[in-house]
Design brief:
Strand order of the largest sheet: 1-7-6-2-5-3-4
Helix content: 25-40%
CATH topology: Glycerol-3-phosphate (1)-acyltransferase
Strand content: 15-25%
Oligomer: single chain
CATH architecture: 3-Layer(aba) Sandwich
Shape: globular
Length: 207
């Protein structure tokens, strides 16, 4: 497992750079503000459909959540994109004994109310047109490694061009409270309800 590293200059530069490229490459970046408990950490679960996704959620955290940002990345991306480790990325090597160690590390991060931990439960990229979001089994290990005082945040990211040259990215946010012994199947079911509703809302948008 590779852990996040700290470098204030690198973090500050890429915070500026991510904001700049989103504003230059997208017509708009939109989200629906919701009420969250500032005294609890956040487990953010999101669909994964593009290279941009980690940047979108980093930016969403900067402008709305305003917590210490952590994101699980596969080891290949952690090594290939050298700056990710300075933005809160930690790595997961699939099909290795270190997977449990990584999931336990992520769970412990949720014990700090100042943290947000981003997980893409699909584990890899899928089209934004997929009918259902698949969940990898490791999520429950992560949850059980925490003290379970965190709050869930479901984020569905969808984009459209409409009449513009550049796309609009919309983040549909929904908070959810799980029971102490929440199952993976229940989390998946509730996330997919939000996913279906988000796509319906997106389809109703007209210009």
């Amino acid at each position: 497992m590779y852990l996040p590293r700290q470098n204030k200059m690198v973090y500050a530069f890429f915070s500026w750079y991510i904001k700049r490229i989103i504003r230059s490459d997208f017509e708009r970046f939109e989200y629906n503000p919701i009420e969250l408990d500032p005294n609890r950490s956040i487990l953010l679960l999101a669909n994964h459909f593009s290279w941009w996704d980690g940047f979108f959620l980093f930016y969403l955290n900067r402008i709305f959540l305003r917590k210490r940002f952590y994101i699980m990345a596969i080891e290949e991306n952690y090594k290939r994109l050298w700056f990710l480790k300075y933005l809160g990325a930690f790595s997961l090597r699939k099909n290795s004994r270190s997977v449990i160690e990584t999931l336990e590390y992520a769970g412990k991060l949720l014990n700090d109310p100042n943290n947000v931990v981003v997980i893409f439960p699909q584990g890899k990229l899928h089209s934004s047109q997929t009918d259902e979001i698949h969940f990898e089994k490791g999520l429950i290990n992560l949850i059980n490694s925490s003290d379970k005082t965190f709050q869930y945040l479901f984020v569905v990211m969808l984009s459209d061009y409409f009449q513009h040259r550049k796309p609009t990215l919309t983040c549909y946010l929904q908070s959810w409270e799980g029971a102490e012994f929440t199952s993976l199947q229940l989390i998946k079911s509730e996330f997919n309800k939000h996913y279906v509703e988000s796509r319906k809302q997106q389809n109703q948008v007209s210009i």
